[in-house]
Design goal:
Adenylosuccinate Synthetase, Chain A, domain 3; 2 domains; 12 helices; 20 strands; binds inosinic acid
Length: 425
């Protein structure tokens, strides 16, 4: 089986755990979008640490890990993760493959990200400052981009970097009054990156095609979530890659028809980090209750996440756009103790009611949620192993989400551990 797992909300849905479980049965795990803005916590022995770029399969010593062409690779972060895994006696030699066409995030991208956000002030997007937007902007602009394949020819890279630095310095000086960057310093880092990462660079599209011919099972792992998708999310409050399942094919070179199942991951409620509309947000004691119980603080930036009720309109839209077959609903245990639970079933916009997710942010900003309400539960769900053993109120809540979002929930998360995941028969 080939699976593709993506988030259906604004990221942080708990994809890591679903991917981790499926990775146990997969020969290859593929990242296809985003970069070090993503983050998932992995547990090795008794230790927890966050991976930002490395595919989740990295912790399993026979799984191949592919970083596809659609990923924005920050070499410094990737090297740190390789070293971190090595300290835990996990070697990725011979099983990490980085696309020669993946674009590289360098220091000046992070600097540009930070400077732009500072200048925007209150109008900022609330990015992770990982240089993601500026790196993808260079990719689309083409003339000043650096890709992993460039590390193979450092003689050609040096003049290329000099050209980029000249261009960036004009921008830094004119727009931000910032100190100039220096080619020598950037090049010196690139030499080190090339030495460390060179052995992993390859034609990953070919590798994946061959893997499919060889009958290997492949797991495609999305980063962020569909509502942060550059084209289909809440633009401009999105990330700079296609974070829905639609980004999979372009981001690794494998056609969607070769994927057997698209699994969309949601939380039992909704969260968002950074700016942008969030119709079901609960900026009150309910939101705080969810934040505290769900430990809703960013893995990458540590920022508190905005919390709110499950938005069935938004999730239904994401599922439909991404061709989602089944949904994994995580963090159900977090909702215990709330007297009643709400699910947004429609929006009221300019006095009219709609079940359609607006494609422009100005409309979404005006949307007021119309909720369906159901009883909450107090029971601890953490030991439940079988779907039908879940309390009635929990099953009713799931049924309500399914009905409103028009997607079947087949996996349920009732706690942080891998074992606290229920597969519905
Ligand atoms: P960027 O991807 O750093 O440019 O940030 C753009 C928006 O996407 C901001 O609102 C970020 O908070 C959000 N974002 C980026 N990556 C993640 C993620 O992995 N989880 C949740 N939100 C993210």
């Amino acid at each position: 089986m080939n699976y593709c797992v993506v988030g259906l909300q604004w990221g942080d849905e708990g994809k890591g755990k679903v991917v981790d479980i499926l990775a146990a049965e997969s020969d290859v795990v593929v990242r296809f979008n985003g970069g070090a803005n993503a983050g998932h916590t992995v547990v090795i022995g008794d230790e927890k640490f966050a991976l930002h770029l490395m595919p989740s399969g990295a912790v399993r010593d026979r799984t191949w890990c592919v970083i596809g062409n659609g990923v924005a690779v920050d070499p410094a972060v990737l090297i740190e993760e390789i070293d971190c895994l090595a300290e835990e006696n996990i070697s990725i030699n011979g099983r990490l493959f980085i696309s020669e066409n993946a674009h590289i995030v360098l220091d000046y991208h992070k600097q540009e990200d930070r400077l732009r956000e500072e200048v925007l002030g209150r109008a900022k997007l609330g990015t992770t400052i990982r240089g993601i937007g500026p790196c993808y902007a260079d990719k689309v602009g083409r003339s000043y981009a650096v890709r992993m394949g460039d590390f193979r020819d450092l003689d050609a890279l040096k003049p290329k970097l000099a050209n980029i630095v000249e261009y960036k310095n004009k921008i830094f000086s004119a727009l931000y009054d910032a100190d100039p960057i220096k080619t020598e310093e950037i090049f010196a880092k690139c030499v080190e990156y090339a030495q460390r990462l060179g052995p992993f660079i390859s034609n990953t599209t070919q590798l994946l095609h061959q893997s499919i011919l060889d009958g290997k099972s492949i797991l495609f792992e999305g980063a962020q979530g569909a509502l942060l998708d550059l084209d289909h999310g809440t633009f401009p409050f999105v990330t700079s890659s296609n974070a829905s399942s639609l980004g999979m094919s372009a981001g690794c070179g494998v056609p969607a028809r070769l994927v057997d199942k698209f699994i969309g991951v949601v939380k039992a409620y909704t969260t968002r980090v950074g700016a942008g509309p969030f119709p079901s947000e609960q900026d009150n004691e309910i939101g705080q209750y969810i934040r505290d119980r769900g430990n809703e603080y960013g893995t990458t930036t540590g920022r508190p996440r905005r919390c709110g009720w499950f938005d069935g309109v938004a999730a239904g839209y994401s599922a439909a756009t991404g061709g989602i077959d089944e949904v994994a609903m995580m963090h159900l245990d977090t909702l215990a103790g709330l007297e009643e639970l709400k699910v947004c079933r429609a929006y009221r916009i300019n006095g009219g009611e709609t079940k359609l997710f607006p494609s422009n942010v100005a409309q979404l900003e005006k949307a007021e949620c119309i909720y369906e309400t159901t009883a909450g539960w107090d029971q601890d769900l953490s030991e439940v192993k079988i779907f039908d053993d879940l309390p009635r109120a929990v099953r009713d809540y799931i049924a309500m989400v399914e009905e409103i979002s028009k997607v079947p929930v087949s996996i349920v998360g009732v706690g942080p551990k891998r074992s606290q995941t229920i597969f519905r028969k």
